[in-house]
Design goal:
By secondary structure, this protein is α+β, with helices and mostly antiparallel strands. It contains nine helices and ten strands.
Length: 287
């Protein structure tokens, strides 16, 4: 028995989807949200400009620095002021507000020195080929709180928590050089200038000259001053107040870290220490 043919149904047409509204941005079309993104970017740029200016900035100075029309800069400042992120001083200058400070403080509360520094220590080890260390000061000594060992058979190794003298270690001298003279004297008074090798600096006068040289080149050298046959190169990490709260170093045998390599390794350590400083929201002292 022949089957009855099924009726052919017309294909269902999909409803056209509404296109997103578009607005013109600098002579071209862009999604409507682009205007809000641009305003947000400009507002953040205003905050950064004020944060980088000591004593605040006038409306004209903000507009000139960001290449904005004065009315646009004023509108951004007024919006940020209403939200509490900026405020006006007695002389009409614009300053970072209390709410922006609270946001920044939340970052400082949640940062972790070791966690942030570790990938940079690993990068320093890869680029230098030597063991890298992170240290802080505790009770007049440098204390190692993190280490990334190199792959060489002959390498420097120390336990976490190991202590080193401030005046005879790379990390110690890097942090001492970042301190004012009164703080240096106070730090050294706890342990004194004990000799560890024939090359250890045990004179306050010689140490003062050494710290001045470190400030000039931006990195410290432990030239067999703590242990014979071991050379270290170190640089400080700065906090949000422009004070050194830690230091990183690379260390290895003098047969590999030769005098000819020291300057290049010093510049490398200093650059990576600066990267860690930036990641932690710090900055070098404003001299």
């Amino acid at each position: 028995m022949p089957t009855k043919p099924k009726p052919i149904r017309p294909a269902r047409r999909s409803r056209p989807q509404p296109k997103p509204a578009r607005v013109a941005v600098r002579g071209r079309e862009a999604p409507a949200g682009a205007g809000h993104t641009q305003a947000l970017s400009r507002g953040l740029a205003v905050l950064e400009a004020l944060a980088a200016t000591e004593g605040g900035a006038t409306l004209t100075a903000v507009a000139d620095r960001l290449s904005l029309p004065a009315p646009t800069a004023h509108r951004l400042l007024a919006t940020l002021e209403q939200a509490g992120y900026v405020q006006q001083g007695a002389g009409g200058e614009w300053l970072v507000g209390v709410r922006a400070f609270r946001v920044g403080s939340a970052f400082l509360d949640h940062r972790n020195l070791v966690v942030h520094a570790y990938p940079h220590l690993k990068r320093l080890m890869e680029q230098s080929g030597e063991t890298t260390n992170l240290a802080v000061i505790d009770d007049g000594e440098a204390v190692v709180v993190e280490q990334v060992q190199c792959r060489e058979l002959m390498r420097m190794s120390t336990k976490l928590g190991a202590r080193a003298p401030l005046h005879a270690s790379g990390v110690g001298k890097a942090m001492l050089a970042a301190m004012p003279d009164t703080a240096v004297s106070s730090a050294l008074a706890k342990r004194g200038l004990v000799g560890h090798t024939a090359r250890t600096i045990t004179s306050r006068e010689r140490l003062a000259l050494e710290l001045e040289a470190i400030r000039g080149r931006g990195y410290a050298i432990d030239d067999e001053e703590h242990a014979d046959g071991l050379r270290c190169v170190a640089a400080p990490i700065w906090d949000e107040n422009g004070e050194a709260w830690a230091a990183i170093s690379l260390a290895g045998p003098t047969s590999r870290i030769t005098p000819a390599r020291v300057d290049g390794l010093g510049r490398l350590v200093r650059a990576i220490a600066d990267d860690i400083t930036l990641a932690l929201g710090g900055h070098p002292p404003r001299r």
